Amino acid sequence: MSVLRLLWSNMTHRKMLSLLTILSVAVTVALIVFLLLCSDGVERGAEKGYGPFEVTIGAKGSSSQLALNTYYHIGAPTGNVPFTLLEEVRKDTQVEAAYAMTTGDQLNGFPIVGMEPGYFATRYGTDTKMAQGKLYGQLGEAVIGSYAAKTMGLHIGDRFQGAHGLVKGAADVDDDDEDEPGHEEHDHHHSFSYTVVGILSPLLTSDDRAVFTTLDYAWAVHESQQGDHKEVTAILVKPKTLLGAQAVKTKFGQISNVQAIYTSKAVADVVNVVDQGAQALSVVTAVCIVLAAVSIVLSLIAAVNERKKDVGLLRLIGKSKRFIWMSLIGEGLLLTLIGLLIGLIAGHAGGYASREAVFEFTGLQIESWGWMPGELLLVAGTLLIGIVASIGPALQAYRVDPLQLFRS
């Protein structure tokens, strides 16, 4: 009888206990894999989330909020700054490029972002191609991110109206509310139509879930922003050098009611908060690992009396020590291996199933079927736990004198 056949026979003899052991290992591994996928998505999103725009200028408030709203289209803006500030920034000798952004409206939950067309070439390179159509050039023209276009089923030539606010349904107005404040603004939104002139190729950033249009759309739908009262949500600055970034931040950060932030630092602060949350989840993961190891030990201890007889018989018929030890440790290792494989598949499948939901709410891309660097350590660690958990019951079974066992 081969070792594998013997191990399989032992496992199927205690089906329920074996299934519970495999399940505990699989759940633990799947949870760790999913955390690795999310962590990798956060890191990659932080790396390419803001492109070359090392400085961001906006209204006073939270620097993290400004960065998240500007580059990840998450949350509300900190406020507005005067449009005239853009020209001052562009005149600075330390600035290579600067673009203003307006936001505050949405289409079915996807943010409508006013942005000058040059932004795309500066951030993504001049070879950035449209999947369909062209970039906008006139008021009322819009370009849709690849994910947003796919989700809403928009095509070239389609027309739509935006809604005020950043939450889907925030601008819905009942007929009974005509006399309430804000009704005129909502009507104004409904009277302003956009035409889809282009759909972006997948950029693998939060811009995939945004609707882009001309910078002046906000001034057209908000009548209060006219003439000298024009405002923008943020100014994205690409400095010529790192020293230039420091000079730009210092200069424009001194203006009243204006903040200038290092984009990388603000994004790093957000990543640190996420890492703290991941550390809290790692405690739960550690508990799961302990439970999985205990499950393996209990499964093998429960069968230790049967294993004693098996070992005694194997020794009496002259099987080698190597064969016997493989039969003893192999059962725990095989249970661990099966649970490991199921967990790896389940973890990646969970990442694949939730990738769109995660991207819609966070703008982070999960490479669901990519091999994470930490997975090799996970595989080695899981198998090691399986071996260690098997040693105790194996020693207990091996130390029995076969002659004494069969005499009794």
TrEMBL record:
In the bilayer, the protein is annotated as: Multi-pass membrane protein
Compartments where located = Cell membrane
- Ranges where the record places region Disordered: 170-189
Transmembrane region(s): 280-302, 323-346, 376-398
| A Pfam family recorded for this sequence | FtsX
As for family, the record states: Belongs to the ABC-4 integral membrane protein family. HrtB subfamily.
Q: Which residues form a coiled coil?
A: none
Can you name this protein?
Putative hemin transport system permease protein HrtB
What function does this protein fulfil? Part of the ABC transporter complex hrt involved in hemin import. Responsible for the translocation of the substrate across the membrane.
Q: Which InterPro entries match?
A: ABC-4/HrtB_transporter, ABC3_permease_C, MacB_PCD
User: GO cellular-component terms in the record?
Assistant: plasma membrane
Species name for this entry?
Paenibacillus thalictri
Keywords assigned: Cell membrane, Membrane, Transmembrane, Transmembrane helix
